[in-house]
Amino acid sequence: MGDFDFNNNSHRRYNPLLDSWILVSPHRTQRPWQGQQEKTAGDALPSYDPACYLCPGNTRITGEKNPKYESTYFFVNDYAAVKLDQPDYVTPQTSDDDVKSRLFKVQGTKGNCFVICFSPKHNVTLPLMSVPEIRVVINTWTDLYLKLQRETAFRYMQVFENKGASMGCSNPHPHCQVWCTENVPTDPAKELTSFGAYKAKHNTCLLCDYLSVELAEKSRIVLENDSFVALVPFWAVWPFETMILAKSHVASLPDFTDAQKEDLAAIIKTLTTRYDNLFLTSFPYSMGIHQAPIKPVGDEHSLAHFHMHFYPPLLRGATVRKFLVGYEMLAEPQRDLTAEQAADRLRALDDVHYSEKST
């Protein structure tokens, strides 16, 4: 039979963060594609759009007017997914033998949602912003974390950015969202559980140990600087999925030094530039920050290790998207190229944005 070939033979990889598995089928990249193709971005956007609800000085759909902001700007989401003021509710359990209350559980949850505009310019994205401008965004995330920690009873603050129409972004103005809830959401909670179980068994940090192997092997690392590594996780699901991982065991944004914030801004800019350069398009993705809860319980703060997930959907080019359907929805996630192959592609790219080369 010969030796096992990770670049050609199907195999499963373990995700220790979520205690799950993924099927890798690298030989499937050879199959022809006759499925759906995405539209690429159309005409270049203006720096200011009078019809945009997020541009400076414009009136939002609710009648609120944005200030003429010159840097980042955040406000309470006009259509928040969770509410601040509502009755408490937990499914009542009449007895231990009550099958309905055992299986049909409901838990009321309170919270708040925010929109953070990265820039007053309507036509920029993170790769087109400067490192100092991205540093201001990081400062805004940090300030909001501290404000919510001081002034609310929220447990968790989830920062995420949906970039591009194919990721459900309804407004191209550069922005992210922050959802804050009185509970820790499912995936961050699973990660904290995994961190705790690993620490109890090995007395070390799961991600610190993982990073030590990645730094030694180098095959999945895309970028690194003094404070952070950008890599394709060994267990990545999306074709060009990456993770930005703090080199030191730092729990959350407020724990960073100024130098670490500068390094985070720099690696975000370079990574997102590489994404755009991969298929010469404004590369869509969902990005999210995982860090310590705002109000940690027990040893959650000491267990947490700051990292950022980037989940981009493009597979073969600017118009071919990876869908999680069929086997992926009903059995387990599956990918068609290995993490190492994806890292090779991203590592080979230029750090100068393709649009800047043509001007």
Automatic annotation (TrEMBL):
One of its GO terms (molecular function) is transferase activity. This is Galactose-1-phosphate uridylyltransferase. Belongs to the galactose-1-phosphate uridylyltransferase type 1 family. It comes from the Eukaryota. It catalyses: alpha-D-galactose 1-phosphate + UDP-alpha-D-glucose = alpha-D-glucose 1-phosphate + UDP-alpha-D-galactose. The keyword Zinc applies. Residues 192-357 form the Galactose-1-phosphate uridyl transferase C-terminal domain. Residues 4-185 form the Galactose-1-phosphate uridyl transferase N-terminal domain. Pfam families: GalP_UDP_tr_C, GalP_UDP_transf. Keywords: Carbohydrate metabolism, Galactose metabolism, Metal-binding, Nucleotidyltransferase, Transferase, Zinc. Pathway: Carbohydrate metabolism; galactose metabolism. Its cofactor is Zn(2+). Its EC number is 2.7.7.12. PANTHER family: GALACTOSE-1-PHOSPHATE URIDYLYLTRANSFERASE.
